[in-house]
UniProtKB/TrEMBL annotation:
InterPro entries: MFS_trans_sf. The chain crosses the membrane at residues 35-56, 77-98, 110-128, 140-162, 168-189, 201-223, 235-255, 301-321, 333-358, 370-387, 399-424, 436-456, 468-486, 498-521, 533-553, 574-593, 617-636, 656-680, 686-708. It comes from Symbiodinium natans. This is Uncharacterized protein. Keywords: Membrane, Transmembrane, Transmembrane helix. It comes from the Eukaryota.
Length: 711
C-alpha cells in the first residue's frame, strides 16, 4: 500500500512538473513570439514606407491658405459634452494600465488585453465615420453605451474571475466607443473657425491629455484607498461605468437631434450640408482650373503613407512608455502600483502643460520642419537619459528616469500635432486624400500604434523579468530608442527628402560591420576566428548586404550623378568583383567546415531510396538552397559583366542586356539568404543575440525595396 501510494505521488509530481514546464515554455514562447513578430513587422514596415514615399515622388506641395473664415466657436454645451466624451474614451484605455497585469498570469497577456481595445476601436471608427456630424447625437450615445457596457463587463469579469475571454470581450466593447474620436475631432474642425480655431484645437488636445491622466489617477486612488481588496483592479472601471451613464444623460439633455440647431447656436451662416456642397463645387472649379490633366494620385498616396506611418509610430512610442514604464519602475525600484501611478500622472501632466505652452507661445513661429527635427532630437535625448548603465541611488535614478520621460514623452506629443498639421496642409481637396479621409486613416493608424506599443512593451518586460534590477528600465529605453530612430528616419526621408545616399550607405556599412563582428566575437553569439565556419559568415556578411548593395547603388547615387557613366561602371565593377571573390571564398570556408565536421553539404538534406528528410531544419535547408543559387549565379554574372563592359568600351555596343535584371535577382537572393542566416543556431546556444537578429532582419527588407523599386 505504501509503495502504491508512493508511486501515485511520484506520478503526480512528474505530471505537475511536466505541466509546469509546458506552461513555462508557452509563456516564454508567447513573449518571444510577440516581441520578435511585432518588432519585425512594425520596424520593417516603418523602414519600408519612407522608401516607398520617395519612389512615389514625394509629398504634395502645401496648399494655399483659404479665405478667412467667420469667427465661430462650438456652443458651450456641445463643448462640455465633447470634452467629457474625449476624457472618458482616453481614460478607458489608461484606467487598466496600472493593474491589468493582476488579471493575467503573464505580462505579455496583459499587453494583449490592453491592445484588444483597438479591435473594437477600428470597428467603431468605420461605424462612426458613417454618422459624421449629421448624426452626432447617435454617435455620442453609442459611445456612452459602449463605455457603460464594456467597463461594466470588465468589472464583473474581474470580480467574478470569469477569465481572459470575458476580459478581452469587455475591452473590445469599450473600444468601439473610441471610434467617436473622429466625430469629436470633426466637431472642433467644423464649429471652431477664424480666431477660435487654434484655441479650440489646443483645448481638444487638452481633453485627450486629461483622459490619459484620469485613467491611472482613478486606478491609483483605488489602490491607495483599498490596498488589501481583491477587487482593486475593477474599481476604476466601475467608476467609468458611472462616467458613461453621466455622459449619456448629458447627451440626451444638451445635444439636439438636428445638427442645424447647434450650427445656429454657433452663429454659422450655412448649414453643414450646404457648406459641404459649396466647398465641393468650389474645389471642383479650382481643380479644373489649376490641376494638371493627370491627377497627383502618386503624391496623394505618398501623403497617405506618411500620415499613417507617423501616426502609428508616435502612438507606438507613447504606448511603449505608458505600458512599460509602470512595470519598469515597479521592478527597478520595488514601488507599489499606486506609487508608479503617481509617477505616470506627473509625466503626463507635464506633457499636457508642454502641449499647451507650445501651442500658445511657439506654434507657427517657425516652419513645421524646423519643429519636427527639433522635437525629434529632444525625444532622442530624453530616451537616452532613461538608460541606467549602472545602479544609482533610487532617488537619483528615479529623478533621471522621470526627467528623461518628461522630455521624450512631451516631445513626442507635440511632434504629433505638428506632423498632423503638416500633412493636412498638403491634403488633396476633392479626392480620396482629402483632409477628412486623412483624419480617418490617421485615427486608424493611431489604434494600430496603440496595439503594437502595448504588446511589444509588455512582452519585452516579460522577457527581462528575473534579471538585474535595472534590466527592466534599460529594456524599456531600448524599445523607445528603436522607435525614436525609426521616427527620425521616416522624417528625414519622407518629409525632409534628404538623399537616399545617406540611408543606403549607413545601413549597408553597418550591416557589413555588424554581421562579421558578431561572427568573430563569441560573446555576441559568434563562433570565433579559430573556426573555419566563422569566415563563411564574415565573407558573406561583407559581400551581399554591404558591397553588393553599394555596388548596385553606384548607378543610382545622387552624389554620383555628375560622374560620367563609365566612372560609375568602374565603381560598380570593383564592388561586384569583390562580392564575387568573397562569395566564392565564403563557400570554400563553408565546404571545408562541413568536411571537418562530417556534415553534408546540403543543409541536412538526407535522401533515401523512397524518402527524404531534413535533419537540420527547413530554415537551414532554405538558406543553403538560396545560397547555392546565388553563388552559381555569381559564377555566371561576374564574367558576363566583365565581357559586357569590355565590348561596350571597345565597340560601343550593349551586350547581355539581361545582366542588370539578373544582378538585381542575385542581390535580392543574397539579402534573403542573409536574413535567414542570422536566425540559424550557429553555436548550439541559439546563435546571435535576439536584438541583433531583429535589427538585421528589419533593415534588410528596406534595402531589398530600394533594389527592386529604384529606377
Amino acid at each position: 500500500m505504501d509503495t502504491v501510494h508512493y508511486l501515485q505521488l511520484l506520478q503526480f509530481k512528474v505530471t505537475s512538473a511536466n505541466a509546469s514546464q509546458t506552461q513555462d515554455w508557452f509563456e516564454e514562447d508567447l513573449a518571444t513570439g510577440t516581441l520578435v513578430g511585432g518588432t519585425l513587422l512594425f520596424a520593417s514596415v516603418l523602414l519600408l514606407l519612407p522608401i516607398l514615399v520617395r519612389q512615389l515622388g514625394g509629398l504634395p506641395a502645401e496648399n494655399l491658405p483659404a479665405e478667412p473664415q467667420q469667427d465661430a466657436a462650438p456652443p458651450l454645451a456641445l463643448l462640455r459634452v465633447t470634452g467629457a466624451l474625449c476624457i472618458g474614451v482616453m481614460a478607458n484605455i489608461t484606467s487598466i494600465i496600472l493593474t491589468v497585469q493582476t488579471e493575467a498570469e503573464q505580462l505579455t497577456t496583459s499587453g494583449y488585453i490592453l491592445a484588444s481595445e483597438c479591435i473594437g476601436a477600428i470597428f467603431g471608427l468605420l461605424l462612426f465615420k458613417e454618422f459624421g456630424l449629421a448624426q452626432l447625437k447617435t454617435a455620442y450615445k453609442l459611445t456612452a453605451l459602449s463605455m457603460m457596457v464594456g467597463n461594466g463587463l470588465y468589472t464583473l469579469a474581474s470580480v467574478q474571475s470569469f477569465g481572459l475571454p470575458t476580459l478581452f470581450a469587455s475591452r473590445v466593447m469599450t473600444g468601439v466607443g473610441a471610434g467617436s474620436m473622429y466625430n469629436s475631432a470633426m466637431v472642433m474642425v467644423h464649429f471652431a473657425r477664424g480666431q477660435h480655431k487654434t484655441p479650440h484645437m489646443v483645448l481638444y488636445q487638452f481633453f485627450v491629455a486629461c483622459g490619459v491622466l484620469l485613467g491611472p489617477a482613478l486606478a491609483a486612488v483605488s489602490l491607495l484607498s483599498f490596498p488589501s481588496m481583491e477587487i482593486k483592479d475593477a474599481l476604476a472601471n466601475g467608476i467609468m461605468v458611472f462616467w458613461g451613464a453621466g455622459l449619456f444623460a448629458a447627451i440626451m439633455i444638451f445635444i439636439p437631434d438636428d445638427i442645424a440647431t447647434l450650427e445656429a447656436e454657433a452663429g454659422l451662416l450655412k448649414s453643414s450640408v450646404e457648406e459641404a456642397k459649396t466647398e465641393s463645387a468650389e474645389a471642383s472649379a479650382e481643380a479644373s482650373a489649376e490641376r494638371p490633366v493627370e491627377r497627383p494620385a502618386k503624391r496623394g498616396l505618398a501623403l497617405f503613407l506618411t500620415m499613417i506611418s507617423s501616426a502609428a509610430i508616435r502612438m507606438a512610442q507613447r504606448l511603449l512608455w505608458e505600458s512599460g514604464s509602470v512595470i519598469a519602475v515597479e521592478e527597478t525600484y520595488g514601488w507599489a502600483a499606486s506609487t508608479a501611478g503617481v509617477m505616470f500622472i506627473v509625466v503626463v501632466a507635464v506633457m499636457a502643460l508642454a502641449q499647451y505652452a507650445f501651442s500658445r507661445f511657439r506654434a507657427g513661429k517657425y516652419p513645421d520642419t524646423f519643429w519636427l527635427h527639433t522635437l525629434e532630437v529632444a525625444q532622442l535625448l530624453g530616451v537616452l537619459l532613461m538608460f541606467q548603465p549602472w545602479q544609482l541611488p533610487v532617488p537619483l535614478s528615479a529623478l533621471q528616469f522621470m526627467v528623461g520621460s518628461m522630455v521624450a514623452y512631451s516631445s513626442n506629443a507635440i511632434w504629433a500635432g505638428v506632423l498632423t498639421s503638416f500633412c493636412v496642409k498638403r491634403s488633396l481637396v476633392n479626392s480620396f486624400f482629402s483632409a477628412e479621409n486623412l483624419m480617418v486613416l490617421n485615427q486608424a493608424a493611431i489604434f494600430v500604434g496603440i496595439a503594437a506599443g502595448s504588446t511589444i512593451s509588455r512582452a519585452c518586460q516579460d522577457l527581462v523579468q528575473g534579471s538585474s534590477a535595472i534590466s527592466s528600465m534599460n529594456a524599456l529605453a531600448c524599445t523607445l530608442l528603436v522607435g525614436a530612430l525609426l521616427q527620425i528616419n521616416m522624417s528625414l526621408i519622407a518629409i525632409s527628402e534628404v538623399s537616399l545616399d545617406i540611408f543606403v550607405t549607413v545601413v549597408s556599412l553597418l550591416l557589413g560591420i555588424l554581421i562579421p563582428a558578431a561572427a568573430l566575437v563569441p560573446a555576441w553569439g559568434g563562433t570565433g576566428p579559430s573556426h573555419v565556419f566563422t569566415w563563411h559568415i564574415v565573407s558573406m556578411g561583407i559581400a551581399w548586404p554591404c558591397l553588393g548593395v553599394l555596388g548596385f547603388w553606384a548607378y543610382k547615387a545622387d552624389a554620383m550623378r555628375e560622374w560620367d557613366k563609365n566612372s560609375r561602371r568602374t565603381v560598380h565593377m570593383l564592388c561586384m568583383l569583390l562580392v564575387g571573390v568573397l562569395s566564392v571564398a565564403g563557400y570554400v570556408f563553408l565546404f571545408q567546415a562541413h568536411q571537418e565536421n562530417g556534415e553534408g553539404q546540403f543543409g541536412g538534406l538526407v535522401l533515401g531510396r523512397n524518402e527524404w528528410a531534413l535533419k537540420r531544419g527547413a530554415a537551414r535547408f532554405a538558406h543553403v538552397v538560396v545560397g547555392y543559387l546565388v553563388v552559381l549565379g555569381v559564377l555566371l554574372q561576374a564574367p558576363m559583366g566583365l565581357w559586357k563592359r569590355h565590348v561596350l568600351i571597345r565597340d560601343q555596343v550593349k551586350r547581355f542586356t539581361w545582366h542588370g535584371v539578373f544582378g538585381q535577382a542575385l542581390l535580392i537572393g543574397g539579402l534573403v539568404a542573409t536574413c535567414i542566416g542570422v536566425w540559424l543556431d550557429i553555436n548550439g546556444k541559439g546563435g546571435f543575440p535576439l536584438g541583433l537578429k531583429l535589427a538585421v532582419s528589419a533593415a534588410l527588407p528596406s534595402l531589398g525595396a530600394i533594389v527592386l523599386t529604384r529606377s
